[in-house]
Amino acid sequence: MPQTLSHPITTRWPAKNPSMLQFYSFPTPNGVKVSVALEEMGLEYEPHLVTLADADVKSEAFLSLNPNNKIPAIIDPNGPDGAQIELFESGAILIYLAEKSGQFLSADPKTKYETIQWLMFQMGGVGPMFGQLGFFHKFAGAAMEDKTARDRYANEAKRLLSVVESRLDGREWMMGEYSIADMALAPWLNGLDFYGAHDITGFADLTNVPAYIERFYARPAVQRAKNIPARPA
User: How distant is the alpha carbon of residue 176 from its chain centre?
Assistant: First the structure.
């Protein structure tokens, strides 16, 4: 019996092709990172829509794969040495897929770890800070009269944007060549528009970052990936 059939998550999200990599996600920036990687790398996979509602991400089935109840997560029945591997955390998944496919992460140790450095910059800085800005600027936190929290995250987002703006001087991509660092970073930079946060982060004053986002979303694989798994109609 194929291994993915024995995993508890398949009781809620059954695998049509259990010999294929299974991708459990929703098209937020964190989810799109991985769908972009899968499309760019040409890996065969089966997507499963996991909404952000508690009924999905806090279900026993999903928690059996990711106890941290966050998308995305994967099961690869053809993992290292042919054994099944189950992974959550988008950054870890990107590194795994890059090494599995031999693409978008240099084999040269220096370049490899510099790429992972910028991936971690997104994971530890851009993602959490932009997410908090979204909460305090657009979502529930926006109703708070005290704007101290919103301003704190707006200023930090502005600082992080300046780091990216400087890094992109003379470069098309964060490492010069397109890599998993770009797959992680660009969807989050694009998310500022969704949050309506361009004005409070000084986005209009930037040159390199807007052009970078435009380049990224012009890629055919990104166009395919940006709504995988497809949002509900």
Answer: 20
Residues contacting residue 103 through CB under 8 Å, at least 6 positions apart: 40, 41
- 21-62 residue pLDDT tens: 999 999 999 999 999 999 999 999 999 999 999 999 999 999
* Class of residue 114 by CB neighbours under 10 A (exposed 0-12, middle 13-18, buried 19+): middle
Kindly report, residue by residue over 153-186, the tens digit of the pLDDT: 999 999 999 999 999 999 999 999 999 999 999 9
Cα–Cα nearest to 207, from 173, 177, 162: 162
**pTM for the predicted model, two decimal places:** 0.96
65-87 as b/e: b if 16+ CB within 10 A? bbeebbbbbbbbbebeeeeebbb
Q: 36: how many CB neighbours lie within 10 A of its CB?
A: 27
- Supply the pLDDT for residue 233: 79
The rounded distance, in Å, linking the Cα atoms of 191 and 185 is: 10
Give residue limits of the domains in the chain.
3-104, 109-221
Are the CB atoms for 193 and 134 separated by under 8 Å? no
Tokens of 115: 């790429």
**CA nearest 136: which of 203, 193, 197?**
197
- Helix, strand or coil for residue 82? helix
- On whether the CB atoms of residues 75 and 57 are closer than 8 A, the answer is no
- Which one is the CATH code of 3-104: 2.40.290.10, 3.30.70.260, 3.40.30.10, 2.60.120.200? 3.40.30.10
